[in-house]
Every structure is written in C-alpha cells, then in structure tokens.
Design goal:
Elements: H1 6-39, H2 54-76, H3 79-82, H4 87-99, H5 107-125, H6 136-143, H7 146-170, H8 175-204, H9 213-239, H10 242-265, H11 273-295, H12 299-304, H13 322-330
C-alpha cells in the first residue's frame, strides 16, 4: 500500500470535517421542516414555509459550511477518496436522529454504521493519488471528451424523466424518485465543483484561472445543480425517515460520482487490479452497511411499542413511504 500524499491527507481532513457538518444539517433542517409543516403546507406538498423557519436556516448554514469543506477537499484529493467519506455523515445523522428526532436506531443499524466506517476506511487507504492539473482548460478538455459528454447526456435525460413524469405520480410514496434526482445531478455537481476548486487553488498559487471562460461555465453548472438538489432533498426529508434518506442518498450519490470521476478523470488508470478490487470490496461493504440501516429503520420504534398489542406488525416496503402506502391500501 502506498503512503498517502500530503494533498490526500489535506483532502481527508477536510472531508471528515465536511461529513460532521453535513450530517448535523440533515437533523437541523428536518426540525425546521416539521415546524413549518404544522403552520402551513409541507415542503412535500409544494409549500415553502420552511424559508421562514430559523431552524431550517440554521441547518442550511451548517450544510453550507460542510459543503465548503467538501469543496476544498476536492481541490486536494480525487473524488474516489473524498466521496466515500460521506458515510460519516450517514452515521452522524442517524445517531442524532435517534436522540433528537426520536427515529430509533436498532442494534443492526449500529452494525450498519460500523460497516460503513470499515468500507470507507478500506477505500481511503487504497485511493489513487490526485493527478497533476496545471490549468482549468485541462479540466475542460477532460469534460468535453466523448465518454463524459455521453454520461452527461444520459444523466440529463433520466433526470428530466424523473422530474416531469415520475415525481408528480410517485414522488410522495417512492423515495427513490427524489433521491435519484439529487444523486444524478450530484455527480455532475462534484465534477464541476472539483474543476472550480482546482481553478481557485491554482489562482491562489499565482496562476489566475478565472480569465478563462471555462471556469465560469463550471460555476454556472454548480449553481444550477445545487439549487435543484436542495429543492428535491427538502421534499425527500419532508416525506421520509431521515435515517433512511441519508444512507440511500449516500449510496446512489457515491456510486454515480465514482462512475463520473472514472469516466472524466480516469482515476483508476494508474492503479493495479488488486487496488481496484480492494476499493470495490470497500464499496460493497458500505452498501451492506447502508442496507442494514435501511432494513432495520423501524425495528427500534417497533421494539419500544411492543407492548401495544392492538397494533399488528407490518413490513415497511423498500424505498416507499409507509404512511402513504397504508392510506392507499385503505382506499382499495
């Protein structure tokens, strides 16, 4: 195993800090969304009352701080190292949801958190070094290669289909719709964020990159993608369990981001088959952890209400809002 480079270490520290802030922001924002839903239409129903809630803004500021740290991390380390560390935000938000939002975390959920940490550590220890990039024009050249252009086109088509066809019909009952939109756009966001972060890093080193129009195009892409993600993430948080949203969003976001980074930056080109296989094993371990978190999300709550014999146990469908499912079945 190669020794981590100084740049990778800087990226690691920034990514861990980012996960702590972002994990906290999920909980703070949901408290604001719940308070806003009491006095007006919920975000999932098209309401924007949360914009008047201090709790939501506190969560938003916390998320911005985390994203800034994450933004800086991409300037120093490859996406395949930085992105998997988002597993720490899953753990942090799940634990806080357990204590603050009373969304109980079962013992197997704790095991899922441990698996996320083990998998992330495996990926970090075998991650490739950041390649040397001397200009934002070099990043633009990578972004306009046929492979990445094809990936971008597929992502945009799928997102449009999700927004205009699936979201009005299934958004409130199937979490995969909201999370899919955020994850797909998130992969493009990360690639653009990395380009802007590199431009800023090079500018501070004395080579002004903002004299090139390429840097400004990346900034526009980041802005549009972030606004879209915020909107649909709010809807997901308002309709589904926080302890489930975090891991599922992480899995999909990480998968698409690593795929995008492989295509654009060719992160695995300099690695051996053994290193790549180890990283894939680490990622599978993370997937196992997030699966446990999802499948056991209601076990803690059911355990606390085991004495209530008037209610029969139920199975919560995967990726589906159980409350909406019950109301739908009652109408049959």
């Amino acid at each position: 195993m190669e020794e981590m480079s100084p740049d990778n270490i800087h990226g690691l520290i920034l990514a861990v800090s980012s996960s702590i802030f972002i994990g906290s922001s999920f909980i703070i924002k949901k408290k604001g969304l719940k308070k806003a839903g009491v006095s007006g239409p919920r975000a999932g129903e098209g309401g924007y009352g949360y914009l008047c809630e201090p709790w939501w803004w506190a969560g938003m500021i916390t998320m911005i701080v985390g994203e800034i740290a994450n933004f800086a991390a991409y300037a120093f380390a490859p996406a395949i190292l930085v992105t998997p560390l988002g597993a720490l935000s899953i753990i942090f938000s799940s634990v806080l949801a357990h204590f603050i939002l009373q969304e109980k975390l079962h013992m197997f959920g704790i095991l899922g958190c441990v698996l996320c940490v083990v998998g992330s550590t495996t990926i970090v220890l075998h991650a490739p070094h950041e390649q040397d990039i001397e200009s934002v024009k070099q990043v633009w050249s990578l972004a306009t290669e046929p492979g990445f252009l094809a990936y971008t086109a597929v992502v945009l088509v799928v997102v449009l289909v999700l927004i205009f066809y699936y979201e009005p019909r299934y958004g409130k009952t199937h979490m995969i719709v909201y999370v899919g939109i955020c994850s797909l756009m998130g992969s493009l966001t990360v690639m653009s964020v990395k380009a802007v972060a590199i431009a800023i890093k090079l500018t501070f080193s004395g080579m002004n990159q903002f004299k090139y129009f390429h840097a400004w195009i990346f900034i526009i892409v980041v802005t549009i993608c972030c606004l879209l993600q915020i909107n649909y993430l709010n809807k997901a948080l308002d309709n589904f369990n926080t302890a489930v949203i975090s891991p599922v969003y992480y899995v999909m976001f990480t998968t698409f981001t690593i795929l995008a980074s492989m295509i654009m930056f060719k992160d695995w080109a300099s690695q051996s088959g053994l290193q790549i296989a180890t990283e894939l094993c680490g990622f599978v371990t993370i997937l196992s952890g997030t699966f446990l978190l999802h499948k056991t999300k209601d076990m803690g709550n059911s355990a606390s209400t085991r004495g209530a014999t008037s209610q029969s146990p139920r199975e919560t469908p995967v990726f589906i809002n159980s409350g909406s499912t019950r109301s739908s079945s009652s109408n049959l």
